[in-house]
Specification:
180 residues; alpha+beta; three-stranded antiparallel sheet; 4 helices
Length: 180
């Protein structure tokens, strides 16, 4: 399911604790489109919202941990494995995403309400987190790899935790000079 976000659709698809946050994102769009609000602020708010949407699904009482492993090099790569508990395999996550023809400028943004199986959503959110922390392009040249771990809310971390562990591959060059 992917539908253009409206106030009515948001009220229909999201639980009460997420509705106001989703409406806030929807109301940010005209400000971003007119350069009155930084695009990065919009993206950060959207990522925070999507984390909350995931954590609402993971908040079933027992501690839950999901992992996404990714790797790449030589101009190819991506998600290699997604680990989720068996009881969540048929679960889906409803979230917000957006489209903008000028992705870096944030112009003409359209916000969508989307729902994906949790496995696909975790891959999607992991890619967002990798980009958010400037590891976009990890598959280029020598490459890189990492794990994004999603940990359900608990008493110590009521908002849940997302941990990004990333490694860049760097090949060392040793120079030699010989004179005869």
């Amino acid at each position: 399911m992917r539908e253009i976000a409206t106030e009515d659709l948001i009220r229909e698809k999201f639980e009460s604790e997420l509705i106001e946050k989703a409406l806030e994102i929807l109301n940010m769009v005209p400000k971003v489109n007119s350069d009155k609000l930084p695009f990065e602020q919009f993206v950060n708010t959207l990522i925070t919202f999507n984390k909350a949407a995931l954590m609402a699904v993971l908040s079933i009482g027992a501690p839950i941990q999901c992992e996404v492993v990714y790797a790449g090099g030589g101009d190819s790569g991506g998600v290699e494995d997604v680990s989720i508990p068996d009881h969540l395999k048929n679960t889906s996550v409803t979230f917000l995403n957006f489209h903008s023809p000028w992705i870096r400028d944030g112009r003409n943004i359209t916000v969508y309400v989307n729902a994906l199986p949790i496995r696909d959503f975790l891959s999607y959110l992991a890619e967002d987190m990798i980009s958010h922390f400037d590891h976009y392009g990890y598959e280029n040249d020598e490459g890189g790899q990492g794990t994004v771990t999603f940990i359900s809310p608990d008493k110590e971390h009521p908002q849940g935790i997302i941990v990004v562990e990333h490694s860049d591959n760097v090949f060392e060059t040793i120079d030699y000079e010989h004179t005869f």
